[in-house]
């Protein structure tokens, strides 16, 4: 069973459960204070505005006891995916490197973007071809991925960048970068390939009649 962790302020938890269920994957929402069920086979940290983004996005949720459980499962190789606010929480909790900060525009942005698949040999991307371009939506005010240049170089050397913002033809350009993310990075892996965070919303690109299906491949990792 995939546990979709719900915090006060989460607003994409139902979307995540619906998207996973559409793919035939058993999922349910789990209130953070109740801890993870023993039969948890995977974890989604969904989008939203946990704790109202006080201090900074994801900072408070990252320090709740349930994230200790998530870290322990991640270290065992259990699949963990952080999306949008879940990516912010996961970075704050040390599951991946980097941080997410205020968009270059200093505005909340909600739009469809293109992503280039940088690797096709991870659980999250094996449904795609390397270099493939997919279209998924973003909805964030603090989605700009920030990381020191030397650490970005290390991520590149270790092939831990999953997705980069690009144009429809797969060109990674400044114009195709919606929020000013360092290196156009839209998604990265943790120390294990079973841990990933991404700012765009794959669960909103899963149902054929709502937002397309380009995000299905990411969620199929939980199958």
From TrEMBL:
Its main location: cytoplasm. Part of the phosphoribosylformylglycinamidine synthase complex involved in the purines biosynthetic pathway. Catalyzes the ATP-dependent conversion of formylglycinamide ribonucleotide (FGAR) and glutamine to yield formylglycinamidine ribonucleotide (FGAM) and glutamate. The FGAM synthase complex is composed of three subunits. PurQ produces an ammonia molecule by converting glutamine to glutamate. PurL transfers the ammonia molecule to FGAR to form FGAM in an ATP-dependent manner. Its EC number is 6.3.5.3, 3.5.1.2. GO terms for biological process: 'de novo' IMP biosynthetic process. It comes from the Archaea. The gene is purQ. This is Phosphoribosylformylglycinamidine synthase subunit PurQ. Pathway: Purine metabolism; IMP biosynthesis via de novo pathway; 5-amino-1-(5-phospho-D-ribosyl)imidazole from N(2)-formyl-N(1)-(5-phospho-D-ribosyl)glycinamide: step 1/2. Part of the FGAM synthase complex composed of 1 PurL, 1 PurQ and 2 PurS subunits. GO terms for cellular component: cytoplasm. Keywords: ATP-binding, Cytoplasm, Glutamine amidotransferase, Hydrolase, Ligase, Nucleotide-binding, Purine biosynthesis. The keyword Lyase does not apply. CDD domains: GATase1_FGAR_AT. GO terms for molecular function: ATP binding; glutaminase activity; phosphoribosylformylglycinamidine synthase activity. It is found in: Cytoplasm. It catalyses: N(2)-formyl-N(1)-(5-phospho-beta-D-ribosyl)glycinamide + L-glutamine + ATP + H2O = 2-formamido-N(1)-(5-O-phospho-beta-D-ribosyl)acetamidine + L-glutamate + ADP + phosphate + H(+); L-glutamine + H2O = L-glutamate + NH4(+). It holds the Pfam family GATase_5. The lineage of its organism: Archaea, Methanobacteriati, Methanobacteriota, Stenosarchaea group, Halobacteria. The active site is at residues 84, 201, 203.
């Amino acid at each position: 069973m995939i546990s979709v962790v719900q915090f006060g302020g989460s607003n994409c938890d139902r979307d995540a459960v619906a998207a996973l269920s559409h793919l035939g994957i058993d999922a349910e929402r789990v209130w953070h204070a109740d801890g993870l069920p023993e039969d948890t086979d995977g974890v989604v940290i969904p989008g939203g505005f946990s704790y109202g983004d006080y201090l900074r996005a994801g900072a408070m949720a990252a320090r709740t006891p349930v994230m200790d459980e998530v870290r322990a499962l991640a270290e065992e190789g259990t699949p963990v995916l952080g999306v949008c606010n879940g990516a912010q929480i996961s970075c704050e909790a040390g599951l991946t490197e980097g941080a997410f900060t205020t968009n270059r525009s200093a505005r909340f942005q909600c739009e469809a973007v293109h992503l280039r698949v940088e690797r096709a040999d991870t659980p999250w991307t094996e449904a795609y071809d390397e270099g493939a371009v997919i279209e998924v939506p973003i909805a964030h005010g603090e989605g700009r991925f920030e990381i020191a240049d030397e650490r970005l170089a290390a991520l590149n050397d270790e092939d831990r960048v999953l997705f980069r913002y690009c144009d429809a033809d797969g060109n990674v350009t400044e114009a195709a970068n919606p929020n000013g993310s360092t290196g156009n990075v839209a998604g990265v892996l943790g120390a294990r390939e079973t841990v990933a965070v991404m700012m765009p919303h794959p669960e909103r690109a899963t149902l054929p009649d709502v937002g397309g299906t380009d995000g299905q491949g990411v969620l199929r990792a939980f199958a």
